[in-house]
Design a protein that fits this description.
Strand order of the largest sheet: 2-1-3-4-5-6
Strand content: 15-25%
Shape: globular
Radius of gyration: 21 Å
Distance between the termini: 16 Å
Structural class: alpha/beta
Number of helices: 12
Helix content: 25-40%
């Protein structure tokens, strides 16, 4: 199929990764990046935050023109917040067989749901032909008018993989967490763990330094890691922690598919969703209280053989269950095929 993807294209693991995977699966992909439209000044940030102004108007006009020229079979709107309801309606009213699909990884209905940048997105929800929902809890908010398909995130086989030990010699740690700070239970749990379990720790992500006063990670290098450095840090750690965003009301996250294929034990907050993705104590390790977190971390640091067995089982689960990006792309395109055939 010919697929036009409209989105910000700010991070390579989002739209760019989808483009690469779809092309490698044999599809023709046209890119429509929105981020370059916004001026790099205060006015640009205001328009991006509130979804108002001439930049928003220009994005909508140019996308309609781009779709007219490209004549795609599918228009995929990847967290395309600047799109107006009328624009989506016009796209969906195009040639017979074309589908306009929405994918949004953040939770527009959680604690951040009142942010102004959701203004146009929420109004446009009924105008799409199909919604790819990131989490099951999103589906009821998308309404019954438009079909929804739950599409979990994925790992990237060309990036997330086990590395030779000599490539990660300078990245060694006992326990790591690679992700952003939120003012939720993660700060108390991590502080408790670091004070209770003597070990070498790596902590990298946004806003940890700003929230380090009096905490166990005060003075640590908590700068963000991406790409190969992110993979090396995972490879070099014995245990990788997983905390879930309360802002997004998450019960899983992208990291739960990336960590196992990097050869690291995943120690995660316990949720019903996680227990459907990985069998507890056989493919992943879960906890519910700070005390259980510390006990589990201590045990698995001391038992290399048991830890290695779970790591291999979790890696195999990722492969067998199709948690990779290629399998995810094939899954939603099957839904598209059925819907196009029914038109």
């Amino acid at each position: 199929m010919k697929i036009l993807i409209a989105g910000y294209f700010s991070a390579f693991w989002h739209e760019g990764a989808w483009c690469r995977a779809l092309r490698e699966l044999g599809h023709e992909v046209v890119e429509f990046p929105m981020k370059p439209y916004f001026p790099k000044n205060l006015w640009g940030r205001v328009q991006d935050r509130f979804m108002i102004g001439p930049t928003i108007d220009r994005i909508n006009v140019d996308l309609l023109n781009a779709v007219h020229v490209a004549a795609p079979d599918v228009v995929l709107c990847y967290r395309a917040l600047p799109l107006k309801p009328a624009t989506v309606r016009a796209l969906a009213a195009g040639p017979k067989g074309r589908l306009v699909v929405c994918y949004n990884n953040d939770n527009a209905f959680g604690d951040l749901g009142d942010k102004a940048y959701w203004r146009l997105f929420k109004k446009a929800i009924p105008e799409y032909d199909l919604h790819l929902a990131y989490r099951d809890s999103d589906v009821p908010h998308l309404g019954a008018k438009v079909p929804s398909y739950v599409l979990h995130p994925h790992y990237l086989p060309w990036l997330h993989r086990a590395l030779p030990s000599d490539q990660v010699a300078t990245w060694q740690s006992d326990i790591c967490f690679l992700g952003h700070f939120e003012p939720d239970r993660r700060q108390q749990e991590l502080n408790f763990l670091m004070n209770q379990v003597p070990a070498t720790y790596r902590l990298h992500g946004s806003f940890w330094a700003e929230n380090s006063q009096g905490m166990a990670w005060q003075g640590m290098d908590t700068s963000e890691l991406q790409g190969e450095d992110y993979v090396k840090a995972l490879n070099g750690s014995k245990i990788a922690l997983v905390f879930f965003s309360t802002w997004n009301k998450d019960t899983f996250t992208r990291r739960v598919f990336e960590i196992p294929v990097c050869g690291t034990l995943m120690l995660s907050q316990r949720t019903d969703t996680m227990q459907t993705l990985y069998q507890e104590d056989k493919e992943a390790v879960y906890y519910s209280t700070p005390e259980e977190l510390a006990d589990k971390a201590r045990y698995y640091l001391e038992n290399d053989t048991v830890r290695a067995k779970i790591v291999e089982a979790s890696r195999q689960r990722c492969v067998d269950s199709g948690y990779d990006i290629y399998s995810r792309m094939q899954a939603w395109l099957k839904v598209v095929d059925v819907m196009r055939g029914a038109r």
